[in-house]
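Q: I'm writing up a methods section and want to include an example of the input and output format. Could you take the sequence below and give the corresponding predicted structure tokens, formatted cleanly so I can copy it straight into the document?
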Amino acid sequence: MNEFEDLLNSVSEVNPGDVVTAEVLTVDNGQANVVIDGTGVEGVLTLRELTNDRDADINDYVKAGDTVEVLVLRQVVGKDTDTVTFLVSKKRLEARKAWDKLIGREGEVVTVKGTRAVKGGLSVEFEGLRGFIPASMIDTRFVRNTEKFVGQEFDAKIKEVDAAENRFILSRREVIEEASAAAREEVFSKLSEGSVVTGTVARLTSFGAFIDLGGVDGLVHVTELSHERNVSPKSVVSVGEEVEVKVLSIDEEAGRVSLSLKATTPGPWDGVEQKLAQGDVVEGKVKRLTDFGAFVEVLPGIDGLVHISQISHKRVENPKDVLSVGQEVTVKVLEVNAADERVSLSIKALEERPAQAEGDNDSNNSEKRQSRPRRPKREAKRDYELPETQTGFSMADLFGDIEL
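A: Here is the clean output for your methods example:
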């Protein structure tokens, strides 16, 4: 009885809510048996009271001989024995300390670890304290799959702390936005129109490619991707590829940068005079047809125009009547204008004018001349003056020498 009374007296020195130091005696069956310093009272520290990770190995957290600081939760008396033990928690003590550290820290940025994807967002841990990041606050774009953040450590801003309600809300998006704003300001300070910069293809759309310039995404419109016409962005670049681009325009207020990829690569018209000259006869392919002629590709990226009047010696009502897209043709170069990026071509210049066509033309011209009504010849203007009546001339004076 005396020994039992001594045991109860020692137990009275330990109360729920106390923060005590304990030594780990043994680790077995997913729990650690400890003895509270200065009391001789034993306690039980389970894996659940060590960490929120249900799949963790307790041996990775404690081992025999370790000294740990724990929070006393409640007293446990054995059913079949007179032993008295206490359930203790290291996790809850750390959580209490974390809450104390969080009070008044709204707006600060802390490092958290993603622990579990939950409905509406992501559960995180900060110094043993469980927090929550709503899905709308995880990234600048809405994240549907939050599983990818589980196990990751990242910075988040404290939005709300309420220890009484066990409410701890954070935002990762604001950290990203602030970092992006700082990076954007730095990038814009270094950009200038006409400069050539290096970037990484961030994403592709139907209208172009967005290039990450180190905090600012610039757009290369589909028309500025290549010297070739009607190309798709994915046929020119790929996500993650590093490219050199030329800055066309900057709108810092709107956060927009227009870029050109083709401006940094040699164009098909560069040095075209050495590749093509007036009088050359070359092979080409019909690329497109219009009402006024056909565009024929004579060099990669260089289309020349065969005007409708240069297609054939015969009259052509519509180029589609005699040519088709993809058709191989032989053409003669009539003119090369590199400054205006224009080449004039002719198909009929390589064909001999049909003799029948010439006879028909002469006959037609003769018939036209014969069918024209002749204009009456004008009589030559006579150069004489009639006598004035006041001179006194009579008919006898004019015709006096004529015998009647």
